[in-house]
Amino acid sequence: MPLVKLLTHPGCPGGRRAKLYFQRHHIPFEEIHLSEVNADFQKKIRTDVIVSPMILVGNTVLRGFDPEPFQQVYNRWVRMDE
Questions:
Q1: Which of 1, 4, 18, 21 gives the lowest tally of CB atoms within 10 Å of its CB?
Q2: How would you class 63 by CB atoms within 10 Å of its CB: exposed for 0-12, middle for 13-18, buried for 19 or more?
Q3: What Å distances lie between residue 75 and 22, 39, 64, 65, CA to CA?
Q4: What is the pLDDT of residue 14?
Q5: Out of the domains of life, which is the source (predicted)?
Q6: Class of domain 4-81
């Protein structure tokens, strides 16, 4: 199961940027369309508000996509997983 989950919707520019970044950096991820997000999943990520994109790295939730903060969080989780 990928450490990174990308919650997005078709046409989301931030989601497209995140996907491209993950692919270029060989970061495995699971894409989840916002239409598939249910109340149980929202409870799991502890939010009532879903924005696009949202990126889950382990149990850390990032709203929007900015490569630098994402990479910092991702590197931390990868080190913990080793």
A1: 1
A2: middle
A3: 13, 29, 18, 16
A4: 92
A5: Bacteria
A6: alpha beta
